[in-house]
Specification:
By secondary structure, this protein is α+β, with helices and mostly antiparallel strands. It has a single domain, classed as 2-Layer Sandwich (Alpha-D-Glucose-1,6-Bisphosphate, Chain A, domain 4), CATH 3.30.530.20. The protein is 29% helix and 42% strand. The protein has a 7-stranded antiparallel beta sheet. Strand 4 and strand 5 form a beta hairpin.
């Protein structure tokens, strides 16, 4: 059994702006308390195979690898840490004059199932913080992105 967490949020900013904020992963700690630090492990544009070391609130430090990217729409990255495989997907869709973002996290493996009572709530909180922080950052008129 896997743990699946998903959150969608409407953002009053065009998808291009939301994408610029989302893809600038090294700046995530500036706008979401769920992220303590992000360190890129390569120096190319974020794409399949790109790696980053993430220190996430209430989770072990892990290296995430981008496994799928749809230009201007979504990216997925994965990690394996302490016997748990994490898969996080970030999707941006046009929504009228703004955007709809859906963030999802799947935690897979026997250990994820056994530890579900301990790790589900902090993971849900982290996804909520990321969605709300992304909304606030993308909607802020005085913040440069990209």
């Amino acid at each position: 059994m896997a743990i699946h967490i998903e959150r969608s949020i409407n953002i009053n900013a065009p998808p291009e702006r939301v994408r610029a904020v989302m893809m600038d992963i090294e700046r995530w700690p500036e706008w979401t308390a769920s992220m303590k630090s992000v360190e890129r492990l390569d120096d190319r544009e974020l794409g399949v195979g790109s790696k980053a070391r993430l220190r996430i609130r209430r989770a072990p430090t892990s290296v995430y690898t981008v496994t799928e990217i749809t230009p201007n729409r979504s990216f997925t990255w994965e990690t394996k840490s302490a016997g748990i495989k994490g898969v996080a997907t970030h999707v941006i869709e046009p929504d009228g004059n703004g955007s709809k973002v859906t963030l999802s996290v799947d935690l897979l493996g026997v250990l994820a199932t056994l530890m579900s009572p301990i790790i589900r709530r902090p993971s849900e909180e982290n996804v909520r913080m990321e969605a709300e922080g992304l909304k606030q950052r993308a909607e802020a008129p005085d913040v440069s992105v990209g």
